[in-house]
Amino acid sequence: MINRNHPIKLSHKEIKKAEIILSQYPYFNYLEQERKEELERLKSEVDENIGGGRSSSSDSHVHENKVIKFSDDDVLNKIKRNRTAIEAMLSHLEPYQKQIIELSYFQRFNQPNAVRIASVANVSRATVFRYRNHFITHLYPQLKL
Fold this sequence. Notes:
The protein is an all-alpha fold. It contains 7 helices and no strands. It has helices at residues 12-24, 28-45, 62-72, 74-91, 95-105, 114-121, 125-139.
């Protein structure tokens, strides 16, 4: 269950930002892989060897350099932090609450409306709106925007 002790009031803009991140959650693995490939391409385009000779230390540290580059990347860190925050919130939900969130944000096509979500989760439409707002209100401070 979500902690009800820290109610905050979010603006419409803040709610939309959180909803965008939630809608990207099912694609985080793809986005992370795409970013890693982009970083590798950027590295291969930059030739740091100006003198023409081969550095004796460059070949032995390729893997370490890649790990450091990935761990220092802000985009990858943002994806990882947001994934962790969303998964932590989802892990504490009742099954019907998780269903409301999944139906509301994790479906790319045929995203059901509040009436359909309420029917599937066996709750009222007002409960769907109230619960989505409650979830986002508590998730927002944990997200890296």
